[in-house]
Specification:
Strand content: 25-35%
Largest sheet: 10 strands, mixed
CATH architecture: 3-Layer(bba) Sandwich
CATH superfamily: Ribonuclease E inhibitor RraA/RraA-like
Helix content: 10-25%
Oligomer: single chain
CATH class: Alpha Beta
Structural class: alpha/beta
Length: 161
Amino acid sequence: MQYNTSELCNLYADSIDVLEPMLSNYGGRSSFGGSVVTVKCFENNGLIAELVETDGVGKVLVIDGGGSTRRALIDGYIAETAARNGWEGIICYGSVRDVDIIEDIELGIQAMVSIPVGATEDTTGESDVAINFAGVTILPDDHIYADNTGIVLSPDPLDIE
């Protein structure tokens, strides 16, 4: 489904939050949205790899990677696995790598920057917790919508029909 965050802001200005503009599109989908699944980890992506193995239909994985630009939390394997399991997208307060691969994967991916150094596969971190970055607090089961213009967060699904 296509989302227009500018239009969502016009329609729902009083009931949404907008993430500060610090992320860019890397995935094959320029627009995506869904119910939020949160994860918090730092420079390791083992927990992320476990989560993308689960059913992601209608869901967006939102990662608080502490804003690290030293190690990429998202790589081609994680992106391919997420797409295969139906995830709508990944929003990462951190870095990506394998950008030439992930731009061809049918998955929305927004992250800060790219770097060739991969994260460790350690599973240290937490999932289904409140996370905070880009000026907003993001809760599990919130609803998030992203496109090339920005990212909009809502506690409830937005009627966009």
